[in-house]
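FIELD: query
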Amino acid sequence: MAQWTSAVGSTQLARLITSQQARPAGPGTRRPPAYRALADGVRTLVLEGRVPVAARLPAERELAQSLNVSRTTVAAAYEALRTEGFLESRRGAGSWTAVPAGNPLPARGLEPLPPEALGSMIDLGCAALPAPEPWLTRAVQGALEELPPYAHTHGDYPAGLPALRQMIADRYTERGIPTMPEQIMVTTGAMGAIDAICHLFAPRGERIAVESPSYANILQLMREAGARLVPVAMGDGLSGWDLDRWRQVLRESAPRLAYVVADFHNPTGALPDGDQRRALVDAARSAGTVLVVDETMSELWLEPGFEMPRPVCAFDPAGSSVITVGSASKAFWAGMRIGWVRAAPDIIRSLVAARAYADLGTPVVEQLAVNWLMSTGGWEEAVAIRRTQALENRDALVAAVRRELPDWEFEVPHGGLTLWVRAGGLSGSRLAEVGERVGVRVPSGPRFGVDGAFEGFVRLPFTVGGALADEAAVRLAAAARLVEGGAGGGVHQPQTFVA
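FIELD: result
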């Protein structure tokens, strides 16, 4: 039986390799033999997630024709990849990509530091900002004032407080997507929402298509639920999705669910435009795949006057094939564990019924606090504070990294909270390990991949600014020098949570 889960055509692979080899080489770099250049190109594509692990590669003759090289060159490149652990083959089944056995996936994320440890360690492991005061205090006070009538009830609201469901529905309606409260379920954060969706639509063994890279905690949640993840490479830079690849995966793998972060993608910061959104909805609908859209970053555009594309659910307002997940965690505060799902009423009823056997409902006080914010205008003012804070932090961190680590590559996103950084040819896992020794915590690239890809990347959230951003870059540069000098023996050291 073949061990591959998707296939890469010879024309597609040739295009990717040509694009990869077009990157400028460093000064004094010698041109390797043709087979070696081809093997290096395929290996880099696997490590960067542009070609997924367990993808069937074209036959030697087909690829040779597409690249206009000899079959001997392709055969030698495939043999080199097999020797290095990046290719596996079986007679009659072909060859498919792999990662070396010594590169297991990180089992856990980065454990949040206690407040008393923040003085000695700069924590870039969590893409979340401190609470925007005075709005947190005001929201809690407002919630306590509205609490007494609820205190005389049982307090269990599996679908969420009616007032908050109505408020969230009204906000979608104001964005041009008519929505009824029956289309809303309030959850315990976005993670709670996606957990409920996965259990309803994707029981153990079902395929879920995910962007590659994608949000680390969601990937781990899906693995724990027993899903079979099918990675789909992102487009170049901040351009959004590779729609040809999405259509191919949806057609060939027929996943039950597809999960995307459409607004300021975590970790890359990409923002697909309206045409891409419509095309992906159409492709998912044609394939019978339910599209789960995470829009927790949707309000974090940073430049004044920036215009956001239409929400993905605008192309399926009934919510029958697009399920939208939102949250207060990124736009307001991660400690406010309030999320929500927007979908068709029958889907919401099924999610509520399934939830009754899990957590029964979301805490009332937190729901009242978010409802108070949204109903008084405090939400808009708090999010405006958040945007200003994130913009200042982004610009400070970008300047500091460019100054201290000029060979690290990244594009500056228009919103969200993260930079996705190619770390100058260094191992992201070793940088994460050594970084802790010098007082800076960063999540390594493989945490955001499905099968060990993105070893050359780290994610840098712009959650610190000013002098702290400068010091973070200085410490990262110190870690980079240590890694270049041979420090950090193992890769993928176990750690515990990435937000």
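FIELD: remark
The chain is about 40% helix and 15% strand.
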